[in-house]
Amino acid sequence: MSERASSLIGIDVGGTNLRGALIGADGEIMRRFRVLSDIHKGRESFLERLVDEVRRLQNTAASLGAPIQAVGVGVPGLIDRQGWVHSSVNMPALEGIALRDCLEQRLGLPVRCANDANLIALGEFRYGSGRGFNSVLVVTLGTGVGSGLILNGQLWEGTAGFAAEFGHTTVNPDGHPCPCGNCGCLEQYVSATALSRFGGGRAPELLASLARGGDEGVRQLFQQAGIYLGIALAGLLNTLNLDGIVIGGGVSASYDLLEPALTATLHQRTFPQILRGVQIRRASLGDDAGLLGAALLAAA
């Protein structure tokens, strides 16, 4: 990066870890930090930790002759266009805070905030497995199910900024209760938490190993998850006629176990004329997707 070029800061807020990076305009990650979120210590303690880490990145940027242009922040939950955190199941201490305004006052920098899965979608679309698609859903199968939707090359946020809560698509009307208040949400059947629950409390990685080793009961668990994921994706594809789906998150490491049932379900439930135009890819950026997407949000 040339001297005196501006830079951006991308922040990925998680229930366990708080991560951030100093990022050049070309997507180059120049510095990183990773600390515990420690959200249980309260909102103010969390905000102080976040601000301290951003200021360290500011100092680094100044030493590189790359002043900070803006900060982008991804937070799990419902975040509106003005940066208000309306709901965050994993980080309830942040609910009801005007996060953008709070950080701008403390940092003296422009700040933009959005749902973390939306920013993962932006990162994968620009720099990762979403490249080459025009309209794509990026699904993150982790502790929960996150998603972001790119339509005609633009992040689709919806009327208030709450769009693409794909994990709360109902796939079983009389199914397992979800913390969102609904029953039978996709998240309750394909997330790491769900697989562990159905698998007797065993970690998804262990379950995948058992399935690949020939445990038929565990293989059926993954097959059922693939069916539910296929049901939800088929409805979305029939509605939006996307050309791409990108699947990431920890559970995506077991995609080979989900794929046969997922594919069969898509063929059963999606118009063939729509399905022919769809490619499904594994996400490629890992944890960097959210950081890069946050920087793209900040630059917009």
Summarize the structure.
The protein is built from 10 helices and 12 strands.
Descriptive overview:
With 300 residues, the protein is of the alpha/beta class. The chain has ten helices and twelve strands. The chain is 39% helix and 22% strand. The two termini are 20 Å apart.
Features:
single chain; 300 residues; alpha/beta; Nucleotidyltransferase, domain 5; 2 domains; 5-stranded mixed beta sheet; 39% helix
- N-to-C series of helices and strands: EEEHEEEHEHEEEHHHHEHHEH
Helix-strand makeup class: alpha/beta
Give the class-level CATH name of the largest domain: Alpha Beta
The overall number of domains is 2
CATH level-3 fold name of the largest domain = Nucleotidyltransferase, domain 5
Strand ordering within the main sheet:
3-2-1-4-7
What is the overall shape? globular
Strand content: 15-25%
Radius of gyration (Å): 19 Å
Helical segment count: 10
Give helix % range: 25-40%
Separation, N- and C-terminal Cα atoms: 20 Å
- Count of DSSP strands: 12
CATH homologous group name of the largest domain: ATPase, nucleotide binding domain
Per CATH, which architecture of the largest domain? 2-Layer Sandwich
**On the 0-100 scale, what is the average pLDDT?**
95
Largest beta sheet, briefly? 5 strands, mixed
The low-confidence runs, each spanning 5 or more residues with pLDDT under 50, are none
